[in-house]
Amino acid sequence: MSVAFRRESDDEHLEPKFELPIPPGPNLVTARGQAQIRARVAELEAVLQGLSDEDAIKATRRDLRYWRNRQATMQLMEDADGARVAFGSTVTFRLNGTERTVTIVGYDEADPAAGLLSFSAPLSRAMMGAEPGDTLDFANASDAIVVSIQVPGDLRR
After folding, report:
1. What's the predicted TM-score (pTM) here?
2. DSSP string of 83-131, one letter each residue
3. Sign of dihedral through CA atoms 111, 77, 126, 95?
4. Is 70 helix (H, G, I), strand (E, B) or coil?
5. Torsion on CA atoms 120, 121, 125, 128, rounded to nearest 10
6. Is the pLDDT at 5 greater than 60, yes or no?
7. Which of 74, 4, 86 is nearest to 39 (CA)?
8. 102-132: per-residue pLDDT in tens?
């Protein structure tokens, strides 16, 4: 039979569903990040119990696979001491005359709009190991300076 007269199913034209990508590198977490991942797994498991729509079940199972993987691979980091910029530090810095504050956290906990940067972000990498008063090598800026370092209590164990 000619291909021109063959009826194709509607499923052939649907966009394929892929697994959620796992970020490369270690899955470092703060105590708060660890709690958030565990809560997300529990939330998705509860949601899955109440679903009856096949597409919603598939989507929720895909999300659950991602979060279970993140839970299985998470590495709780030691609390920062505040002397140098480290994972879990809140850093106030000056860049191009503007002072900003960011907290360095794990990939899944990151929210740049809220000032939470992943440890793998370029700015975070540029700050690691710096002390107050150090000049950062970031974005060809000659005035990027660490002003202060704190360790927020909600990130600690």
Report:
1. 0.82
2. SS--TT-EEEEEETTEEEEEEEE-GGG-BGGGTEEETTSHHHHHHTT--
3. positive
4. helix
5. -90
6. no
7. 74
8. 999 999 999 999 999 999 999 999 999 999 9
